[in-house]
Amino acid sequence: MHMVVFKNTLLLFVTIPLILILGGCQTTDTHDYIVQKGDSASLNRSGIENLNTQNYEKAAKSFKKSLELDPENYEARFGLAESQIKLQEYEQALMNFQMLVPVPAYKAISLQEIGLLELRRRNFDVAQEYLELALESDRNLWRTWNGLAQINAYQYNWEATDRFYENALDTAAGQQHVIYNNMGVSYLARGNKEDAIVAFNSALNYAPELDIVKTNYKLALATLSRYDEATIESDVHSRAKALNNVGYAAMLQGDYEEAERLLLKSIEVSPNFYKTPYRNLQILHQLMHDE
Prior knowledge:
Oligomer: single chain
CATH class of the domain at 225-290: Mainly Alpha
Strand content: under 5%
Helix content: 55-70%
Radius of gyration: 22 Å
CATH topology of the domain at 225-290: Serine Threonine Protein Phosphatase 5, Tetratricopeptide repeat
Order of helices and strands: HHHHHHHHHHHHHHH
Number of helices: 15
CATH architecture of the domain at 225-290: Alpha Horseshoe
Structural class: mainly alpha
Number of strands: 0
Distance between the termini: 12 Å
């Protein structure tokens, strides 16, 4: 087996996004919003509905109109900040979250969102400072614990990473799959492949149909050369995709013979899905030629 290091390679093991949205299957921390009256309440409901359906520009417009009617409409300002994160308007979102920190009902959640925004921008020291401040106000913010775990994982501080993930699990009722998935990612990063498989399997127990967890689980199996097990799928398209992904993982490990078999099988199983495995085959054959 040839061991290969790729530079600028797309990361295969992806964590579930940290960005907070108000509803839907990825709803995060619950928050008791202040009830608004009249047109502001109607605009806020429209904004929330648009957030939930990922119509972020419409959501932002609704929340802005609500704030024009009432500049102290905290629900609208928080919703606007969330919309701005999704629109990658980070400075505007940061400003709105900062304006909510003095409001007792929004202090902890706003500090958390500032910390997670700084984490997204890889400002780890600043992110940690805000996340720790959030915990001083509310120690039940599971996304805050998760964020602290990720900061320590980026810094290879595995003892702290594990401790923060355990705290996240203790407070993440209904969202355990997120934590177990991210734990699996951290185990893979430090080479604990068996532990990663256990973590991803735990995530699947809570969210058996979540594609990103299923993909991570299969790729973890591939790191132990359990290729056939990692490519079991019920429908043709999913099997072709799994064969491609696992074949690529085999290539990254330097297991060229298995990589070629899996990529060719991907094309055979679903000829309509040939472009991606074909490109990976070209990369593989170039590597084999360079040996």
